[in-house]
Structures are given as structure tokens and as C-alpha cells.
What we know:
This protein has about 425 residues and is an alpha+beta fold.
Amino acid sequence: MVRYLIVFLIAASFVMSCASGIAQETQPPMTNADVVKMIQSGRLEADVISAIKAAPPNFDITNEAILALRQQKVPENVLLAMIRRQVLENNSRRKAKAASHRAAPTGPWLKWQVEVHGGLSRSHQMGGWQLPPSAVAYSLYGTGFQGDSSIHVSSYYFGNGAQLIGTAALDPILTKSVVEPQGKLYGFRASRDITRRFAVEFTFDRTDKVGLTNQALTTIQNVTTQFSNVFARLNVPGNAQTSSVSTVSPNAGHQAFATAAVVFNLPKIFKVNPYVTAGGGVFFGGGGSPSVTIAGSYGGPTALETDTVNLSFAQSGSRALTEVVGFGFKAYLTQHLGFRADIRGYLYHDPFNTVMDATHTNTPNAAWVVKASGSTSVPFIQLLTGPGMSAYSTLSGPQISGMKTFFGTGNQRLIPLTVGLFWRF
């Protein structure tokens, strides 16, 4: 929708500019002789004044010319209208000339520009998501716990497992895009004027490293810490090996955009030259992707269980076609040196997908059934059972391999805001 609006604005501005130019070229300016002809032909004074106000003027309003007009019976009201119209036109021309001198350098038409720029960028990705199926309930095994139940979970780090022990869950980063460029962007641009109004340009932009968002890193830290705190409190005899450790590779490669575009220069406003641009090109990705591993253990050495989750954030491919639309303004500092501010939107399809593995191990020994200390609302957790009875452990849900929990759909949007210096030649 945005790109169609930009194209419409470019077309509308072009049509208005052409229409204005054609109108000025086809209507010649009115002169003293034209006024004399209208008076001598019997035109009403009011009609003559209306024609003077509507036409571009080129009147001679010197004292000698005004005296000559009086001698040819031109009414005073008509003379006053001619003088006012020409004075207004002269003032308008002087202002336009002064603004033109301030907004653009004097000298020859320099058609080429080369530029370096830098700035900040934001990205956005829509998509779908899924989580493992809900955990299945089962009856506890062990003396004194007949009739009580727990659930089979694949991990305590997300979903029903995290709900069971009352800790933060990985769910918020499993169900949305949490990978984006780390803000900074820099690049260069070369352009050539085709006419005073149109130009073509080539732009190369490169983002800073792609990485996990701060919100994702905070969630990982909370999940890791709370897991360890919960199992350290549980009343399991010999529970001397409770731990929870996260290994995070937060950053990956860079993203780059190489595009060609048409630039339409809008009329000058004070000291700046606004423009709009639209085009297309190629997006380049790759260079690795962020990853996370969280490994927890508890109940050892008597009833050791381990709980491990691996997350990878992989991009669909290494390149894709991209569209670009934008607008900005240029200001000339000298005949050759200028300043540009620019905001653009890159639209492309090469999303990051979130892929999860969840594994767990049990060391069958003795059966332990526990609750969080001091709480009667938390369901039972069965750590282990005797040999051959591992199905009665709470941590006995399906092992998960290569599950895509978030998958990007539609176009990604990267919006850079940059400033730069260019050299004209």
C-alpha cells in the first residue's frame, strides 16, 4: 500500500509540473500594447483589469511609458492595475531568484553525485507460530500417592512444564520474531541527473550484525535463573547437582541491500531540495545465525534428570529480491558539497524462522514425588521411578527435534533513517 501511494505521488507531481510548464509556455505575457488594443477596441474597463490580473505581465511602468499610455486614453484605474500587477510580479521574481541562489549552487550543471551515509534502522516481520501439544496427565506412581496425578512434559523451560513449576517460560520468544539488525546501518550512493527533475541512483546499504533482541535476552536469563531456583528448593534427598546454564550466541552475520532507483526531484522549499524515490534490487543475508542452548539438571546424584533446549534462528535463504521506496531532502553547502537526510523502506521476503530441539534424560533409581516448598497449589512433580518405570517421570513427554515454532510470512520491512554527505561533479 505504501509503495503504491509513493508511485501515485510521483506521477501526480510530474503531471502538475508538466501542466504548469505547458500553461506558462502557451500563454504569452501581456504588454502595454496589448492593453492599448483592448481599450481602443471598446473593451469595458473592468474586463481589461480582469485580463491584467489573470495574464503574466510584461508591462513597462516607467514614467515615460505611463505618460504615453495616458496620451492614448488609457483610464487611470487600468494604469494602477498594470503598475500593481507588474510590481507584484517583479517582487515574486526577486524572491524566487534569491531562494534559488540559497537552495542551489551557482555555476554549471553538475550531474554526478557520490555519497557516504550512516544511520539507524528498524525491522519488522509478520509470521505464524506453534507450540508442542498440551501435556497429558497421568497418575503418580509410589506409595502414598495413589490417586494423585501429574503431567508428562517435554521440558520445564516452556509451555506446560514452566506452568507446572511456576517459572518464566520461553514461550514469548518461541512465538514471534526476535532476530533483527542491531540498529546501525551505513552505505554509499552514486547518482546521475537525467534532467533537472529526474535522476537515477545506485545504493548499497549494510546493516550492523543481526542479533537477538534485548527482550529475548532478558527472557532467556529469567528462564535460566528461575529454573535453578525452583529445583534447588525442592525436597529431594541428595539433591546436590541442581544447575541451569544458558549458552547464547546472540549475533550473526550482516544484511546488505544493493538497489537501483529513479529519483523525482520536487520543487524547492526554502533552502532544501525534497525528492521521492522508488526502485528495486537484491537483498543479501547469510553469515550464520543466532543460537541459544539452555541446559538444566536436578535431583542428582540419587535421582538425576537433565533438561536441555536448543534454539536456532535460521534465515530462509541468502538472497532475495527487494523493493525500495523513500523520500528525503538535499541541501547544498557549496557548489560541490551537499548534505542529505533520507528515510526508506526495504520490502523483501527472507524471514528468520525459530527452530527448537528439546531433550531430556532420566537415571532410573528411586521414585521421588515433590512439591514446591510451602505451596499446596502447585501440582505434584515426580522426578524418577525405579528401573523400567521411567514413563512415570513428569519429565517424560515427547522429545522434540527440529520443531519450527515461528515461521515468517509475507514481506519483511527494514526502515533505515540515514544522513550523509555527497560530492557533486
